[in-house]
Amino acid sequence: QVQLVESGGGLVQAGGSLRLSCAASGHTFSNYVITWFRQAPGKEREFVAALSWRGGNTYYADSAKGRFTISKDHPKNTVYLQLNSLKPEDTAVYYCAARYESRWPPSTRRNDYGYWGQGTQVTVSS
């Protein structure tokens, strides 16, 4: 059973940084993609960034390019999302998700992902 556990969220001032973690367990993730989504109050859950576990390829939403970085620590089975130059509009619950993926770029549709973590809140004050 795949388990994803996020951590690292918090309250930060605009311009600040946070590093989110997604600890994955319960499966061999060789052919999986690990993806970060976020959901702001009253809005749809949206794609942020994705990483292919085997090759380490990365893919970003336009809103994340240049400010966010997705990476992995293979021995720890953990995927990170480094958030820099945060803005109030980045305030959301951030979720990691996983799916078997054979194409690139990967799916950015939330409904295509069957494994989810519980989410971690990021709040950016102005």
Structure, explained:
The protein has no helices and eleven strands. The strands form two sheets. Strands 2, 4, 5, 6, 9, 10 and 11 form a seven-stranded mixed beta sheet that branches. It has a four-stranded antiparallel beta sheet with strand order 1-3-8-7, with no helix packed on it. It is an all-beta fold and 126 residues long. The mean pLDDT is 96. β7 (68-73) and β8 form a beta hairpin.
Low-confidence stretches: none
Query: Which secondary-structure class do the elements indicate?
Result: mainly beta
Q: What is the number of helical segments per DSSP (H or I, 4+ residues)? A: 0
Distance between the termini: 40 Å
Gyration radius, in Å = 13 Å
Strand proportion, as a percent range, falls in: over 45%
Helix proportion range: under 10%
| Number of DSSP E strands | 11
Order of helices and strands: EEEEEEEEEEE
Largest sheet: 7 strands, mixed
Average pLDDT confidence is: 96
User: Which term fits the overall shape?
Assistant: globular
